[in-house]
């Protein structure tokens, strides 16, 4: 079947099987390798992408379920040369160890900050509670998201 998606702001068209999962279309056909394959059961958060701004597990979605929607992956947020403030803050806090969980964490944190630019630590913890990290113990990730939020707020105030 023909599938239209907007991926990281770019309209794309794919030919997919009706049973194709979103994670497979993103990784294998769209080239979005930041989308990680972990548990494939909705438990680890590694495959999280934003669907119209909302974080969802791409391993649980048929690609056809999100036809016509806007998908954001980490490739759409920044690059090593021009990182998003969340990326910078995670690295600075030492929250990136093996890195496997990080793309999903970034996207859930982005969705939180888009909705609530001034979250509490409890808000961040709640936003990230679907993400398993076997390396960091989460404390540094929460600290990093709070730091990124402060930087983004300061940037907006500076731009006024
Ligand atoms: S791979 Fe999708 S939630 Fe674990
Ligand atoms: S940094 Fe290794 S799983 Fe999170």
Q: What can you see in these coordinates?
A:
With 160 residues, this protein is α+β, with helices and mostly antiparallel strands. It is 36% helix and 14% strand. The protein has 2 domains: 2-76, Beta-grasp domain (Ubiquitin-like (UB roll)); 85-159, [2Fe-2S]-binding domain (DNA polymerase, domain 1, Orthogonal Bundle). Helix 2 (85-92) packs across helix 5 (139-159). The longest helix is centred in the C-terminal third of the chain and has 21 residues, at 139-159. It starts with a strand and ends with a helix. The mean pLDDT is 96. A hairpin with a 2-residue loop joins strand 1 (2-7) and strand 2 (10-15). It is built from 5 helices and 5 strands. Strands 2-1-5-3-4 form a 5-stranded mixed beta sheet, with helices on both faces. The protein binds FE2/S2 (inorganic) cluster (FES) (2 copies).
Could you provide a short overview of the structure?
By secondary structure, the chain is an alpha+beta fold. The chain is built from five helices and five strands.
